[in-house]
Structures are given as structure tokens and as C-alpha cells.
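can u pls check wat happens w/ NAI
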Amino acid sequence: MAIRRSKITVVGAGFTGATTAFMLAQKELGDVVLIDIPQLENPTKGKALDMLEASPVQGFDSQIIGSSNYEDAKDSDIVIITAGIARKPGMSRDDLVNTNAGIVRSVCENIKTYCPHAYVIILSNPVDAMTYTAFESLGFPKNRVIGQSGVLDTARYCTFIAQELNVSIEDVQGVVLGGHGDDMVPLVRYTSVGGVPIEKLIPQERIDAIVARTRVGGGEIVNLLGNGSAYYAPAASIVQMTEAILKDKKRILPVIAYLEGEYGYQELFMGVLAVLGGDGIEKIIEIDLTDEERSALDKSAESVRNVIQVVTA
Ligand SMILES: NC(=O)C1=CN([C@@H]2O[C@H](COP(=O)(O)OP(=O)(O)OC[C@H]3O[C@@H](n4cnc5c(N)ncnc54)[C@H](O)[C@@H]3O)[C@@H](O)[C@H]2O)C=CC1
Ligand SMILES: O=C([O-])CC(=O)C(=O)O
């Protein structure tokens, strides 16, 4: 059998979806199908064609098509869900829960039919609860249903640390666990620059300020944009996760995973460190936490559980 290119479907052709599709093609991770609602079929086709017409200039061979028909998504290896509404200034991600749960459920019905073997990555907010919703609707094994939050939250955290120290971002290592909300848990004790713990490089009050800014990093962008939320860094985060799966890289990344006893949590989707490779979430890595870190994670888990209760009620 001839080797074929991977096929990646991105559902939702708005800011995050379109940016993700373009980055995936630029990196030649596969052929890309961009899907939106029938009322937006022409703009979706237009965006895809515009991206494709960049290929001669940028030298990528990935195909990109726009569609509102899931037949075009048939047998995708990866499906990325960005469909849904985004928040505006003054709103929390949780305010989106009812609208986006309906959208995610209807998208998942199509994924189930047309892409039964896909690895599914969820971006739509509130993303921990939307990953739970997708898992329930799809009925896929837990290793194939993965939410995106920690890669982005960690990226923001590392950006602020590199800025603070005026050093290369390449030398900053950190991790943010927990739900994708204002009580997420940046783990200072597991953060280093060039192998040196940040507590030895940055005064405590500046570390506290960086942690606080990270927790509201999404809101900072929402307030600056005025009408929508972040999309460049979210798209880059999704692309990193997609690449980890398609290239079986076995990256250790913070992802939203289904917890069945890990860290003592049951039947909960939340951000934890995991090995992400050719079989999706291949392993969850449990790290030891101090009492303080543990109670911060418990608080975040409680917030996530409250939103999940809305979608399971
Ligand atoms: N988890 C994370 O880290 C992040 C999550 N988000 C979330 O991602 C979602 C999308 O954000 P944006 O792309 O900025 O919003 P957007 O409004 O630019 O795009 C959303 C797109 O979804 C489409 N859509 C709605 N219902 C659909 C359906 N049933 N089928 C297919 N497409 C449908 C809309 O027509 C629209 O084009 C939001 O919920 C946002 O909060 C955004 C950034 C980061
Ligand atoms: O803040 C938002 O609404 C979008 C998002 O999840 C992020 O950028 O972290």
C-alpha cells in the first residue's frame, strides 16, 4: 500500500481554526480540511484557497480545502475542534459553557460517523469541560480525546520568565498544571532557566507577579483585542500537540487528560503532564507536589468539576 500523507481536519474556521490550519500546512504535517457551518461555506473555502495560494511562495506541498461537508473530513487521522463562541471582555470562559457544549456535541456526532479512528484535540472553551463533553459524545478511548490548555499556559509563563531575565526562550523550562482558568497552577518549583531553578534567579515577589499574570494570560489578550480571544499562541500549541502525535515524538507536555485515580482525581478531565505520541496520551506522569501545590491543584480541580457538572446535569 502506498504511504499517504496524514489528514488533519480542523473544525471551526474562525481565528484559532484558520491560524491552526495555516501553521499545520506550513509545517507540512499533513493535508488539511477546514470545516465550518454551511452558512459560512464560501468564506471557509476562500480562507483555505488563500492559504493554498501561499504554498508556491512558502514551498509547502500540503493541500488545504475548506468545506461544510464532513464527507471531506472522512478518515482524518487527527480532528481538531475549535468550533464555538469566544469570550469578550468582562466574560469568563465558563460563560461559554452552554452554547459551546451544544456545538461540541453536534461536531462530535459527525466525527464519530466520519472519523471513527481519529485522535481528537479540543480547543473550544471552557476547554476542560468541553473535552469531557467530547469524550462522552464520541465514546472514543481516553487516549484519543485530548484537550489543549497546558501547552499554551506554559508558553505564556515561559514568555514572561524569558522577558524578566532577558534570556533566550529556548533555555526556559516550566510547567502549568490544572484547569484552564484563573486558578491554574504554574509550578515554580519545577521551573528552571538553563538548568537553574528560577527561585535562584528571580526575586520571590517578581515570581509571584509572573504566576499571577500567567493565570489571567488569556484575559489579558481578550482585554487588548476587545472583540475575541487569542489565536496565534493557541494555534501554535495545537500544532505542537498534533506534531507530537503524528511524528510519534513522545513529547512530555501538559495536556487535558481523563483522570481515573491519577493525583487522586476520578472521572475528571484536567491538565496534567503526559507522554504524547503516536497513540495519543500514552501515559500520564504524576509528579510529587508539596501540600501548598497540592491544595492549589485541588482548588483548580474543584472549579473544573463545577463546570463539568453544568454539562452533565
Ligand atoms: N483552550 C484554549 O487554550 C483556547 C480556547 N479558545 C476557544 O476556542 C474557541 C474558538 O475561538 P476562535 O477561533 O477565536 O473563535 P471564532 O469565533 O473566531 O471561530 C469560531 C468558529 O467556529 C464556527 N462554528 C460555530 N459552530 C460551529 C459548528 N457547529 N460547526 C463548525 N463550526 C462552527 C464559527 O462559525 C466560527 O467560524 C472559543 O471557544 C475560544 O474560547 C481560544 C483560544 C485558546
Ligand atoms: O482567554 C480565552 O478566552 C481564550 C483562551 O482560552 C486563552 O487565550 O487562554
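The chain has two domains: 7-148, 150-312.
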